[in-house]
Amino acid sequence: MSSHLASAVNSPVPDRRFIFTITTGRSGTHFLAELFASNLDKAQVLDEQLAYSDWGVNSPDVSHLTTFNHVGNSSHVRAFWCQKFARLKALDVRYFAEMSHVLAKAGLVENLDQLQGAGVVHLIYLKRDIAKTVISFINRADFLNMGNMWLWYLDLAYPNVIVAAKPFVSLGQVGFALWYILEMRVRAEYYRLLLAERAGIVFHEVDLEDVVRIEGATKLLAGLGMDLTPAAIRMPGQVNANPVSGIDESAQRYIREVVGSFTFDAAELARAWYEQGYRLSRLPEDR
């Protein structure tokens, strides 16, 4: 687990911290929400905002996700973040944490300038074992329905992506889920590069297997400004775990073999794409 502070230490901003994730889902966001709710001081902590009145207001709706992943940070997408961030800036809290994995797929990072001056932004690049995550997705049939992919994940047919989908298509649902996880890992590394010189933004890389242990939780909370002793930290129990998997051992073994067959360097892929001048905020005609 690592942290990168981009010139934020002496920034003339209020003592407020806004915390968001860049991750896939099925990766520990519910655990982090419980951890933060139990340990952050003067905090408003949310997981996913899913009331009917939240869509298009507090949570991006399908149009924001599909627009961003077709053309980039359009006026439609930016308008969503403008009204959302205006409310966040008015909150009387020290910490605002929203662990929804959907936000980063709908232009969260591209619109953080609208939070500038309101406090320090912490982005948590949350990772979980890839094979375990794929198994969790397949167990829930998350990639069987295109509408579900548009609402929560990513579509392999989106034009505004970094990782080429072609090698994964023939693998069916396992390939779809694997491509999605790899795309999100590359996006996280891309955002690390994009934000490297931005003041007031802290980038944390967190592995779920580490943060569910007291040592990892202590380190993450310290990085957010909560210097608690391990004995003082209230650890959540098992949160939002799948029920007993309906996938038999042979199928799980196949998934692990497929995952193991891909050699993948997310940081290198992100850097190569970034250095060619590509940006998720816009879709150039020659891409």
By CATH, the topology is: Rossmann fold
Distance between the termini: 34 Å
Helix content: 40-55%
Percent of residues in beta strands?
Answer: 5-15%
- Strand runs, count: 6
The top level CATH class name: Alpha Beta
Mean of pLDDT:
93
Helix vs. strand class: alpha/beta
What features would you describe in this structure?
The protein has about 290 residues and is α/β, with parallel strands linked by helices. The protein has one domain: Rossmann fold (3-Layer(aba) Sandwich). Helices cover about 40% and strands about 10% of the residues. The chain has eleven helices and six strands. A six-stranded mixed sheet has the order 1-6-5-2-4-3. Helix 4 (about 130-140) packs across helix 7, helix 4 (about 130-140) packs across helix 10 (about 250-260) and helix 7 crosses helix 11. The chain is globular, with a radius of gyration of 18 Å. The model is unreliable at about 1-10 (pLDDT under 50).
Quick gist of this model?
By secondary structure, the chain is of the alpha/beta class. It has a single domain, classed as Rossmann fold (3-Layer(aba) Sandwich). Helix content is about 40%, strand content about 10%.
Secondary structure topology:
Layout: E1 2-6, E2 17-22, H1 29-39, E3 43-46, H2 62-71, H3 75-89, E4 95-98, E5 120-127, H4 130-139, H5 146-152, H6 166-169, H7 172-194, E6 201-207, H8 208-211, H9 214-223, H10 249-260, H11 266-275
Helix pairs in contact: 4-7, 4-10, 7-11
Descriptive terms for the model:
disordered N terminus; 11 helices; Rossmann fold; six-stranded mixed sheet; 287 residues; 12% strand
